Amino acid sequence: MISATGTQCNPANAEIFFAAQKVDEAVDLCLDCPVMFPCRDLARAEGHVYGVWGGETPDERRAWLVENHPDPEVRAEAARETARIERERERSIIRKREHRAYLRIVAAQAGVALNKPVDAESDGPTIQQVRSRQLATIARQMRAAGADMDEIAEELGATRRTIQRYMSAKYDNIAA
């Protein structure tokens, strides 16, 4: 980001350009910027692999760096980062597939239809409640064994706040 007079990437807006969830917003801000192309060229020349620079996303820039950067070390680093990101995307897909398979098993064990909404008059738990109850039980067991909240959150793939909710009495009343 080259911060020039009249640009949107001033220090007050800088976080937008490095937030993964706001890539589209950052690219849109770049489209009207008077220094869009020099900014992009600077990021390429310096080998920046994070953030939106000159309307170019990190993935687009890494791909360009792997192919075109004159410094072989920068090309190698961009290639390693691209491979790491791709491995993480693959792991994420695998985790999502495993989670769906797990939910189907839990639903079958609980007698809950996974793909159908639970009737409003139903006394039984929903699949989400069953899953939350199981995670709450696991979280409490881990906590009793001495694990800290961050370890539990990482192991269960949840946020720290979710784990804190699991530790509350709310999940005691959900039928397993």
TrEMBL record:
A GO MF label: protein-disulfide reductase [NAD(P)H] activity
A GO CC term attached to the entry: cytoplasm
Pfam entry (one): Whib
Domain 4Fe-4S Wbl-type span(s) in chain numbering: 8-63
The protein's required cofactors: [4Fe-4S] cluster
GO BP, sorted A to Z: cell redox homeostasis; negative regulation of DNA-templated transcription
Domain of life: Bacteria
Subcellular location: Cytoplasm
This protein's UniProt keywords: 4Fe-4S, Disulfide bond, DNA-binding, Iron, Iron-sulfur, Metal-binding, Transcription, Transcription regulation
Record's keyword annotation contains rRNA-binding: no
Family: Belongs to the WhiB family.
Protein's recorded name: Transcription factor WhiB
Species the sequence originates in: Micromonospora krabiensis
Upper classification of the organism: Bacteria, Bacillati, Actinomycetota, Actinomycetes, Micromonosporales
